[in-house]
Amino acid sequence: MGKLEDRVNEILGVESKPNAELMQQKEYKPPVVREEDKEKQDVDNDHKNSREYYYNLIEKGQEAIQGILDVAKEGQHPRAYEVALAGIKNVADTVDKLQDLNKKLKDLKELPKSASPQIKNALFVGSTTDLQKMLKDKKEPKDITPEKFDENNRDTKDDPFKGTPIEGKD
Is the entire prediction scored with pTM above 0.85? Predict the structure, then answer.
């Protein structure tokens, strides 16, 4: 303790004892260092780093909440308790985000397993009316892939621009 504190304690008749809690050194934890494992995919590396950041945030939040609760107990002020509750809610939200992160990774890893390997590209080309007719009749869609485009050999029967200056131009 300083000389001034010793003098005041002497005048007041208070015995000066170092507070064990104040004298206790907290272990310093450096921020999470980003390490990439070259053998793993980017998704796995990102998940690992995100998890470490969330755990770090949760730990810091818990320390902050403990300090705020100590202040609230000493001051008995409603606003201090309100701030403490907001901190608790923020830590709880971070825990939820951590759980969502794990669920998203699980879903992402299961996606390739659940996809059918037989379907390469599924594309319907046609109008909604054609689609409704096909679904109603449950028949196979007709193949409308042109073999070779020929400007002079066009089917203009269903051309919506028939009889207009842009007839036959798509």
Answer: no
